[in-house]
DNA sequence: TCTATAGGGTCAAAGGTCTG
DNA sequence: ACAGACCTTTGACCCTATAG
């Protein structure tokens, strides 16, 4: 710090010898980067710009020339090394960068893209949350049309139709989660019908869904037919302990064995409680996270759809996953977010398993014999031939 | 200075014998430091990076591996010398009084002190990569014992037994991926047997597995019985295009319809090509990422294991997932890492679907009738009753 | 005692990382 | 995207213990 040498390039205090000559940190790094990236600069003037501490960044061409002139040695550069990871200790008060990134992204967004708009995670998650809210309103209403699967999938979308929603989607007085009583077969039946109806409307709100062939639409909805209702039922159930799922009309089930139901369905009950309800409660999944997770679960490329549709679905769900992660980091901080995110996304395998098992012939047959299916349900589960 | 020996690690001129072999100053110091600080490195590629004078710093994992391979002897490191007895500035004691004090201070510190803690993801991922490498060596060997599932799961683990591995796990000359020919039923059968054998040994290397009940062990392995072999087959297949999977003995399958096989198996072939091979190739999944993904796939709490085991498995796979994420961020940068990570982890749903479908009665029956199962395979797929 | 060898330590100068 | 402060790693060079 006393009689230090000066940088031969810019006359700043040198930080030692670099590439053969005394030089400062800035000129050292500038030289390395320039040689490594083989950058070529152009001088705006006469190739004799002054280079000193105050204006060393003004002309990169002349700065690099000066580096060479005072004897910096290119051959002193080495081959790339193994990356060494983070070098700075973690800082605590850093919620701002997320914010900045998100506002940057939204200001960069191009207005003409419409199919998969690149918005900030806030916009994406917000869109999903709004969709989820509407879907739940419809679920809590008493509206339940009788229609075929084809009618359901090809008719006008209802969820984003404010006139329809205003008129028919007000909450039924029966759906206030009070008057608890144990669930019966008829109640199961009623809520399956409602949840399947809402599922078809939910599906139609995805732009990506509108562009699919009819075959792909039915396959995707069919694949989601068990798990999406389960997610609705579990997430919206008020907390009566880890063993109880309550439906909006106050009917509930718990671990009580129901001997009149097939073994497969009793087993599924335990799966739902252990593998969905419990993790949701433990992780304190919030509404935005649930909305995104449900969309990721719905957009499952494992359904028997065309390869193009698989690819499109996958892109969409990866995008949502990215935004969900950004949101969680902003909300929980890095460490906690990685844990919660990993845990939540890995629940996808459980969802996948349930979706798959619901197709097992034995299970379906049980189900079919014990619940009087409507023709809609038969189409949904078995296909229309 | 001319007839000097060369460093066995990097071919630079050796500065004498160090730790048992002729080696250069750099490799000598690198080896000492790595052992002393117990550093664990992770290879960014496939653990076979070249190591020579010009690029010896490019991959620290492979450099250290090479050190060990050419015979550097860890036991030649001496116990920590008495730092106080070491008088370093006998010649020029006046040069840097400030420095001297500070370095004395630092030399009084315990050598175990973690000034730069090695990032934990390196240890975790490295462990998984080493495990994967051994498993693949066993897979490429010709060792294939006849034993029951119980014997397989309860016998002594082989993968981390260096004596066994040295003796029996050398690569079979038949398993060199050349001599391509279309696969037959017998070949399928052979590779299923091999992959199932390796799977049982792979499973036993997980500490978490050792602590499970026998029932949980079989369920977990059973749940992995289809997907883990698929991952092995796909990842290790040399690239002959997106339609071809090559086994180590040169047998291959592609999209050719095989009419002698049941429809379910032909369908599965397409699934493997479209949903596993293609994404792996597109994402350029590297060895570390594959090792971690395979472990996450194996540790699937959806298997029919006890609730305690489910919870333990889930914790473990969430931990691996976190470390995988950290690794990918370090390797790819934030933006790219989030995309690749999301895409890779979401492939878990596909794995789950395959695992589940493999249990479908119809599918299994097809499979069973067309491939002569050994009793081991029957146990694995159907259980032992 | 002397000398060659092979341990360990040092620090200038490489390269990598991250924030503004 | 670039600049440069700040971080880690490398290895030529040094000191020291020990065997012959």
TrEMBL record, chains A, B:
Keywords, sorted A to Z: DNA-binding, Metal-binding, Nucleus, Receptor, Transcription, Transcription regulation, Zinc, Zinc-finger
Chief subcellular site?
Answer: nucleus
Work out whether the entry's keyword set contains Transcription regulation. yes
Q: Where is this region: Disordered?
A: 81-116
Where is the protein localized? Nucleus
* A matching Pfam family: zf-C4
The chain positions of domain NR LBD read 145-384
Superkingdom field = Eukaryota
GO cellular component terms, A-Z: nucleus
PROSITE patterns given in the database record: NR_LBD, NUCLEAR_REC_DBD_1, NUCLEAR_REC_DBD_2
Bias (Polar residues) ranges: 104-116
Taking every annotated instance into account, which residue ranges of this chain make up the domain Nuclear receptor? 4-79
Q: Which GO terms describe its molecular function?
A: DNA-binding transcription factor activity; RNA polymerase II cis-regulatory region sequence-specific DNA binding; zinc ion binding
State the family it belongs to: Belongs to the nuclear hormone receptor family.
Its protein name is: Nuclear receptor domain-containing protein
């Amino acid at each position: 710090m006393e009689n230090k040498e000066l940088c031969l390039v810019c006359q700043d205090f040198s930080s030692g010898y670099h590439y053969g000559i005394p030089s400062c940190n800035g000129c050292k790094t500038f030289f390395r980067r320039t040689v490594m990236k083989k950058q070529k600069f152009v001088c705006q003037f006469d190739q004799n710009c002054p280079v000193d501490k105050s204006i060393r960044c003004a002309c990169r061409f002349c700065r690099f020339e000066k580096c060479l002139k005072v004897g910096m040695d290119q051959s002193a550069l080495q081959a790339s090394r193994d990356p060494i990871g983070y070098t700075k200790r973690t800082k605590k008060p850093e919620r701002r960068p997320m914010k900045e990134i998100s506002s940057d992204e939204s200001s960069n967004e191009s207005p003409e893209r419409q199919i998969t708009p690149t918005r900030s995670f806030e916009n994406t998650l917000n869109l999903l949350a709004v969709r989820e809210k509407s879907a739940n309103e419809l679920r809590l209403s008493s509206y339940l049309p009788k229609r075929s699967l084809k009618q359901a999938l090809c008719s006008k979308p209802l969820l984003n139709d404010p006139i329809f929603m205003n008129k028919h989607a007000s909450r039924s007085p029966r759906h206030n989660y009070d008057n608890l009583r144990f669930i019966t077969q008829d109640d199961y039946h009623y809520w399956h019908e409602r949840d399947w109806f809402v599922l078809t409307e939910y599906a139609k709100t995805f732009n990506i869904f509108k562009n699919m062939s009819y075959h792909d639409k039915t396959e995707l909805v069919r694949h989601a037919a068990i798990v999406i209702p389960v997610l609705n039922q579990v997430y919206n159930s008020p907390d009566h302990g880890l063993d109880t799922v309550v439906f909006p009309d106050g009917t509930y089930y718990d671990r009580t064995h129901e001997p009149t139901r097939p073994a497969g369905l009793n087993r599924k009950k335990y799966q739902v409680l252990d593998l969905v309800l419990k993790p949701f409660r433990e992780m304190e999944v919030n509404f935005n996270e649930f909305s995104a997770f449900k969309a990721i679960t719905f957009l499952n490329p494992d359904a028997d759809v065309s390869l193009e549709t698989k690819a499109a679905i996958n892109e969409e769900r990866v995008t949502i996953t990215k935004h969900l992660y950004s949101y969680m980091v902003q909300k929980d901080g890095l460490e906690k977010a990685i844990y919660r995110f990993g845990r939540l996304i890995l629940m996808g395998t459980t969802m996948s398993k349930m979706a798959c098992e619901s197709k097992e012939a034995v299970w379906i047959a049980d189900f079919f014999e014990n619940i009087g299916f409507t023709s809609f349900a038969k189409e949904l589960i078995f296909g229309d031939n």
